[in-house]
Structure to design on (1500 residues):
C-alpha cells in the first residue's frame, strides 16, 4: 500500500513542532506520497523529549541526536535546532547517508553554508532547507504567470520582509544578540526568505549594494538591573540589487518594524503587468495586466483556490484559506516525492541555500565596504 | 501518558478529510488533550475506504457504518456524510452511547433537527456540530471584547455569507437542487454558519422577516442535452431580525454571488464601538472604539497572534496565519476536552444546533407568509 | 464667449459652501457650460451674508430670500437651507420661473415632496436635487458596465449607508431630534442617497419590508443639566426590498455606526459578475466578472481615470483622486447643460426625488405595520 | 473687506488648470486669505489664451509671458509651463519683484535650480514650488504625530512613487524622452515629490547610493514608421539613503510600473510605532503604536476629518474625501498667507526646492560612480 520512510526529528521548538505537524498530516493531505514513519524524536531534556514524542506521535524519545543519526531505520532527518548546531548535525546525517530536512539559515557563517553545500553535493541524498513561504500555491501561481509571459519581461523586483519581534527596546539582551551564538540577525532570520522568493521568481541576484544597522544598539541584561549588553547583529538592512537577468531590485528587511508581524511582501514589475503579494494576506495574490478595456483595468485580488495546486488537496472549496503550517506540509510532500524520484521545481537544497546565503553575506560585505559587490 | 479515546469516521469527502486531518494533528498542536486513536473509517466503496484508512491513519476500513457504531472501542463518532444520512447515523451512535461529532446542517428538515436534539439531550454523551468558523481565535477575541464592554451595548448585528458555487447558470442540475436529497439550499449550507456567529456574539434571534429566492430556477440536466431540471431550493435569502437582547440585525446569504468564495462576514455596532470580520481574511479582526484622540481614531486591523488563544499553540509568532483546516483542530480539541470534563464555552451541541436551524426554517416560513415570525 | 446664467444662493452652511465652490469652479473645469454669474447670496444674518458674499464671489448679500426670488436677473436658485424651509422657497422660486437646485431631502414630509414635485412638473423649468454621490464618474462607469451586460442580469442589490454623527449618546438633544423641525432622521439624511444609487443602478424599488429604530431614545438637554429630551426620529433602519425588475435588495442605514464616516456602499450581484463600491474609497470601483482563466479571476480595483468621464476634466492623470466637492461641480455642470438643452441621464429632478422619498416613507409605514408595503 | 492680490498665470495645461482652479476656490474655502484677482493669463496660442481666460476667470489673455511680468498690478505669478522654461520666467518675475509660484521640478539641470534659488534668496519676495502632496491634511497630521513622539524616534523612512504613464513600450518617442527638453525623467517628474515628503517628515537626506535605468531604451518615432528614437532619461531609480538624523531610508520610483497611477507612498518606522500613507488612498493614514492591550493592537486606518485642519474648511463632515485639486487650494492658501506675513511651516521655497533637487541629482551621480555620494 505505498512506500514508507523512517524519520527522525531533532529539536522540538517552534519549527520542530511545525515539522512534526507536517509529518502527521502529509499522507492524509496528499495521499500519493511515501508514508513517513515517525521513529525517533530528540530533545536534550529527557522529560520534554518523552512528552513531545507522545504528542507528536514519535515512537521513541532520545536525548542524544547522534542516536538518530545512528539508526539505520531512519532515512530522513529533520534538523530544527538553533542555527549554531545545524552544520554539525546536517553533516553527520549526510555522512550517514540520511536525507536531511534542515531549517534555515544553514549556519552561523558563510563558511558553514559552504561546507554544508559541499557535503550535500557529495552525499547522494536529498537535502532541503525550510523555505516554506515558497510553497504557497499562490507563489507557484505567480511563477506560472511569469513563465507564461502574463506580465511580460520582469524589469524590477521589490521585496520587503518586516516583523517587530525586536522592535521593543526593552526586550532583554540574549544569545540572539550575539554573532557567535545566533550569527546574523534580521538577514539570517528573515531576509533569506525574501531572497528565496527573489531567486525563485526573478532569478539569481548578481550584485548589490547595501546598508545594515542595529537600531537598538544595546539591550537590558536580564539578570543585572540597570546594565546593558551590546547587540552584535543587525536589526535592519536594505539593498539595491541587480539580477543576472538585468532586472533591478530592492530588498529590505527589519525585525524592528512595529506592527508588522510577517510582512514578507513583494511587487514584481514586468513590461506587461505587475504582481503583488504579502504573506500577511497569504491567501491573496494581486495581478495587473495591461490588457482589456482601459476603463476596467485594475489590480485583481486572486484568492487561493483549487485552480492553484495543491490547494485543492487541503480544501476543495476556493477561498477557504491555507495557514502557515500548511505550507510546511506542502514542503514535506515535495521532499518525500523528490526522495521517491519526482523532481521538485521549487526545491531549495543546500546548494540553492548557499546561493541565498551568499546574497545576505554580500550585503554584510557591501555595508562594510560601502560599495557594490558581486555575489 | 494521558488518556486515549477511540474514534471512528463515517464519510471521507470534503469534511471527512477535514475531520481526519484534525484527528491527526490535535494532540501535536494541543498537547493536553486525550489522544484520539483512529480505529475505523467507513466508506461505502471498499477500495476507497481502504485507501483512505491508510492515508488518514485509521487502523481499519469498513463499508457498513453500523460496524463503527457497534465497536465498543469507539467512543467518538464523526459523521461527515451527506445531510440526508446525518439523522439516522447520529441517533444510532447516540443510542449506542457514543459521543457524536456531526457536520451541519443536522438533517434535511426541522423535524430531523428536533429529533436529533431530543436524542442528544437524553443520551448522556457529548454532541457537537461542525460550526468550525466559531473556532477562529479572533471570534473568541471578538466575544471577549464584547463581554468586556469594549464596544458598549450591541445595537446591531449585520451579517453576510456569500459564495459563488452555484452562481454559474450552466452548473448542471444535481441532487443538490432537490429538497428531498439536499434539504434547504444556501440556508442550510451557509446561512447556518452566519446564524451560529450571530447567536455566539449577539445572542438569540427572537423574530424575523425574510425573503428567499432561487436565482437560477432551472439547470441543465447532465444526461439529457437541451433539457433542464427544476431547482427546488433557494440560492439566496435575506432577513431582518430582532435579537432577544433588543438589538436589530440583518442576515443575508447567497450561493450565487460571483467572486465571493467564503465571505462569511459581520459587522457589529455597539454604543461605544464597532467590530468587523470577514472569513476571507480570517486572520484579521477590525475594531473601532470611540476612545482616545479623535484625530487618530480609526478602525484597527488586528492580526491573529498568541494573544488570541489558542493561536500560539499553532505558531508562537504573531500574524503568521491560521487556515481553514486549523479551525477544525480547535473544534476537535474543545470537544475532546469537553468529553474529558472541561466546559466548552463555544460548543454547538445538538440543542444549540436546533436553535440555529429554527432560525433558517423561520426564514422559510416568513418568506412564504410574507410576515414577521417568531423563532 | 458662451452663454451666462444669473444665480442666487440661499443658505451658506455646509451645503451652501459646497454650492458656492461649484459655482466658482464649474466653468474652469468644464469649459463648455454656461457661465454662472454669482449675483445674490442670502443669509438671515446680515454680517455673515456680507462676509460670505465676498468670500464666495457673489456680487450682493441679502437677508431676505425673497429678494433673490424677485430678481429678474437670477435664473437659477440654489436652496441649501434647513429641510423645513425647502418647500416654501422652492415653490416660490418655481412660481417665479426660476430653475431650482435644492438640497435633499425635499422637505419634512411626503406631502412636502409631493407638492414640490407637482410644482416642478408644471413650472417649465429645471429642478434638481443634490444627489451628488451619483455624480461620481465611477457610478457612471458602474451604470455603463451594467447596461453593457458586463455583470449580466442584476439579481441582487445590497446597500448600506452608515455614519457616526449621532453615535455618541452624549451628543445633546437639538432640533435635529424633532420630527417637526428635522423630519425623518437617518432615512432623510442618508438613506435617500442610497436609494438614489439603487434607483439609478438597479431601477425602481417596488415593495419593501422594514424595521426602524432610535438607538439613543433620549439625549441630554443642552441647557438643563441632568434632564433629557426625547429623540423623535430614527437612528437606523433596515429594509428588504424587491425591485420592479424582480431583483431582490437590502438597504440599511445608521447614523450611529461608530467609525463609519461616509460609508455609502453597495454590492450588486449579477448573473455574470459583481460590482462593489464604497464612498469612503470613492476613487475605487471593484469589479468581478466570470470570464477568463479561473486561476486568475478576482475582484479588480479600478481607480478613477480619464477613461471615466468627466474625471479627465479635473485631472488628465489617472488615479489622482476626486474629492467630495468635485462631485458637486459635476452635478452643477449637468444642470447647467440641461438648462442649456442637453439631457442629463443622471438627473434627479423633483419627480425623481419624490420617487426616492416614497421609498423612505414606505419604510416608515412598513416598520409601523410590520408588513410588506408597496412603494 | 480684506486685502487683494493681483495674479498672473503662465501656462494653461495640466498644472495651469490646477492653479486656475485654486485661484477660483481659495477665498471661498479659506475665507481669511487675501483675495486673488485673476488679471492676466498667458498662452502662446492666442485663441486658446482667450478661451482659457474666459473659462478660468482671468480678465485678460496674453500671448507673451513678459506682459505678465511687466504688469505692475500683478504681484504673484504662477509658472506652469514646461520645465525648460521655468528658470527664465521665474528669474524674470523675481527680478520684477513678483512673488513666484512655480511648478516642480525647478528646471532641467541642477545649475538651473541653483540659479533660481540664488535669485529667490535675493529677491525679497515669496517663492513657492508646487509640492502639493505635502498639503494633504493627513501629511500635516503625520508630522504632528511624529513631532509629538507618537511613534518615537524615526529609524527608517521607506518611500515609493510609482506611476505607469511610460510603462507601455508602444508609447511613442517625444520631447519627454530628451534630456535637453525634459531634463530628468522619473526623478524629475515624480521622485521629487517623494523627496519632498521625506524632507518634511524625516529631515534632510545626507548621503545616498543609487541605481537608475531606462527600461524602454528606445521608443517608436511618431512620424517615421518602423524607426525608433533613443530615450535619454530614466524610467526608474532606487536609492539607499541616510538622513542627517541618522535614520536609514529607501527611495524608489518608476514611471513604468503597470497599474500604479499615483502610488506616492511611504512607511515610517519609529521606535514606538509606524506610519503608512499612500496617495492613491489619499484620505487614509495608517498608524500603529506600541501601546495598549497587545490583543487589540493593529494598524488603524484614520480617515481625513475636521480634526485634521484645514480639512474642515472643505467639508465639516469627516471622511467625505478631499481630491487632488483640493491640495493645490491648500498650497495656495498657505502661499497667500505667507505673502501676508503668516509663516508656512510646510513651505517649499526655491531654497528648499534646491535641496530636493540636489537629492535627485546626487542619485544620478551615484548611479554613474556606483558609489555613495554626499548630497
Amino acid at each position: 500500500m505505498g512506500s514508507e520512510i523512517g524519520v527522525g526529528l531533532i529539536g522540538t521548538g517552534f519549527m520542530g513542532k511545525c515539522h512534526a505537524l507536517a509529518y502527521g498530516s502529509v499522507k492524509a493531505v496528499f495521499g500519493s506520497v511515501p508514508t513517513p514513519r515517525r521513529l525517533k524524536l530528540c530533545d536534550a531534556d529527557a522529560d520534554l523529549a518523552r512528552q513531545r514524542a507522545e504528542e507528536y506521535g514519535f515512537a521513541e524519545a532520545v536525548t542524544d541526536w547522534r542516536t538518530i543519526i545512528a539508526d539505520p531505520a531512519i532515512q530522513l532527518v529533520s534538523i530544527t535546532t538553533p542555527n549554531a548546531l545545524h552544520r554539525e548535525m546536517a553533516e553527520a546525517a549526510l555522512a550517514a547517508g540520511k536525507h536531511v530536512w534542515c531549517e534555515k539559515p544553514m549556519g552561523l557563517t558563510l563558511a558553514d553554508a559552504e561546507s554544508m553545500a559541499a557535503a550535500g553535493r557529495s552525499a547522494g541524498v536529498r537535502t532541503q532547507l525550510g523555505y516554506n513561504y515558497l510553497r504557497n500555491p499562490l507563489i507557484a501561481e505567480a511563477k506560472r504567470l511569469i513563465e507564461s509571459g502574463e506580465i511580460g519581461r520582469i524589469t524590477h523586483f521589490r521585496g520587503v520582509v518586516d516583523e517587530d519581534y525586536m522592535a521593543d527596546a526593552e526586550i532583554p539582551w540574549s544569545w540572539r544578540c550575539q554573532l557567535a551564538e545566533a550569527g546574523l540577525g534580521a538577514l539570517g532570520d528573515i531576509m533569506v526568505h525574501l531572497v528565496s522568493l527573489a531567486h525563485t521568481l526573478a532569478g539569481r541576484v548578481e550584485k548589490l549594494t547595501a546598508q545594515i544597522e542595529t537600531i537598538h544598539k544595546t539591550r537590558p541584561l536580564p539578570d543585572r538591573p540597570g546594565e546593558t549588553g551590546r547587540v552584535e547583529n543587525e536589526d535592519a538592512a536594505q539593498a539595491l540589487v541587480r539580477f543576472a537577468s538585468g532586472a533591478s531590485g530592492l530588498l529590505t528587511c527589519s525585525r524592528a518594524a512595529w506592527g508588522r508581524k510577517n510582512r514578507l511582501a513583494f511587487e514584481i514589475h514586468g513590461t506587461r503587468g505587475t504582481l503583488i503579494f504579502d504573506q500577511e494576506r497569504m491567501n491573496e495574490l494581486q495581478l495587473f495586466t495591461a490588457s482589456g478595456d482601459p476603463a476596467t483595468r485594475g489590480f485583481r485580488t486572486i484568492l487561493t483556490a483549487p485552480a492553484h495546486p495543491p490547494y485543492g488537496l487541503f480544501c476543495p472549496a476556493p477561498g477557504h484559506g491555507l495557514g502557515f503550517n500548511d505550507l510546511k506540509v506542502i514542503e514535506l510532500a515535495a521532499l518525500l516525492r523528490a526522495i521517491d524520484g519526482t523532481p521538485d521545481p521549487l526545491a531549495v537544497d543546500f546548494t540553492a541555500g548557499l546561493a541565498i546565503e551568499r546574497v545576505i553575506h554580500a550585503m554584510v560585505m557591501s555595508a562594510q565596504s560601502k560599495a557594490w559587490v558581486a555575489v
Summary: The interface with chain C takes residues 1-2, 14, 17-18, 20-21, 24-25, 27-29, 31, 35, 51, 54-57, 163, 165, 260-262, 279-283, 303, 305, 314-326 of chain D (CB under 8 Å). The two ends of chain D are 47 Å apart (CA to CA).
